[in-house]
Amino acid sequence: MKTDTRRLVMFAAALLIAVIAGYGLAKLTGGQDAGPTPASRADDDGHDEKGEHDDHGEEEAVGEAEGEEGLVVLTQPQIEASGIQVVAVGRGGGSETRLSGRVESAIGARAAVAASVGGRVERVIVAPGTSVSAGQPLAVIVSGEAATMRANADAARAEAEAARLVYQRDQALVTQGVVARQELEASRARSLAADAASRAAAAEVAAAGSPNAGGRVTITSPVSGVVGAVQVTPGGFVAAGDVVANVADPSQTELVFSAPPALAAQIAPGARVEVTGTNGSFSALVIGVAADVREQGGMAIIRARAESGPLPPAGSPVSGIVVAAANGEALTVPADAVQTVEGRPVVFVAGDDGFRATPVLAGRRAGSRIEILNGLSGDERVAATNAFLLKAELAKGEAEHGH
């Protein structure tokens, strides 16, 4: 009985194992026929994504082929509307030199009025800051020397008059045969000599300030302007040549710079100087260059005049940058023409289809221009003013291609 029961249990277990194994085999076979496995689906997905990337790369390649690198396409109306200035490449080059200087009264607009004769100061008519016109009195001097000059001039004039009357009398007597012709010629010579002495005495009096009979001399200003300093006081004594007062016209000023002697040989009248003063920055033109014999070491002076607007007051310090001429074959462009694209200097060369960014090797900057050492032949026309707009347009185009 126990043996039959054991056989029945073993038979049931074997049957159960067979059923489970058959079900697993059927499940496995049916899964393969029902659809793709996860691995196959992954392969299909990967294939699709790769295709999409290939298509996107082809589109980028087509976009790059449509637009040339470094070219900004603009029509002539667009160039005019944007204010882009197109200029030719210049030649000349140069080097910058910084100068120190000051504002001074222009030559001819200032005067150091001196006494022409020595004497006592009787009266001072002006004070510092007084506005005067040309010929206006500044001071009165009483001079014994001037009184002597005036007396001598009066005597010489009287002698000349007497000699002239003698000559006229001899002319009448010669016609009557009373006086010989030789005496007439001698009286004529004495009259001419007396006239010359009279003119010399009158000129000496005029040079002394035309003193009156009492020896009073009025010192007058030779220029219009403002009295800067008065060097005399009433009751004081001045010698001939001593300065009585300084007068300068504040509206007529110029710039005076000190420069090395070598630079003076390279600067010519008409050169431009970029000046910085108390009133800001402005441009000036050189009007004269000369050696300053007052300075030790052979320093030269450069005189300049502002192109427009008034200069700072006389005595104000200024600094300037002057461009000295150099090799006439060097190529130069305006400073605005050189732009930095991707870390390198470029200029935008104008062509029929727009502007092309051309890499260049920039050299020294002289004033408002930059020397170009390499990259241009000299026959190009480049964008100058507002060239930064082309740089921005080029960057925008590259950003669009990047997407």
Describe the structure concisely for a colleague.
This protein has 403 residues and is an alpha+beta fold. The protein contains seven helices and 24 strands.
Your description of this structure?
Belongs to the membrane fusion protein (MFP) (TC 8.A.1) family. It comes from Luteimonas marina. One of its GO terms (biological process) is copper ion export. Pfam families: BSH_CusB, CzcB_C. This is Efflux RND transporter periplasmic adaptor subunit. By secondary structure, the chain is of the alpha+beta class. It has 4 domains: 2-63; 71-94 and 329-402, conserved putative lor/sdh protein from methanococcus maripaludis s2 fold (Beta Barrel); 95-108 and 249-324, Efflux pump adaptor protein, beta barrel domain (Elongation Factor Tu (Ef-tu), domain 3, Beta Barrel), CATH 2.40.30.170; 110-248, RNA polymerase II/Efflux pump adaptor protein, barrel-sandwich hybrid domain (OB fold (Dihydrolipoamide Acetyltransferase, E2P)). It has helices spanning 2-34, 38-66, 76-82, 144-176, 181-207, 261-264, 387-402, and strands at residues 71-72, 86-88, 90-91, 95-105, 110-114, 119-124, 131-132, 137-142, 216-220, 225-230, 237-238, 243-248, 253-259, 272-277, 280-291, 300-306, 317-324, 331-334, 339-341, 344-351, 354-359, 361-366, 369-374, 381-383. It has a 6-stranded antiparallel barrel. A hairpin with a 2-residue loop joins β19 and β20. α4 runs antiparallel to α5. Mean pLDDT is 79; it is low at 18-66.
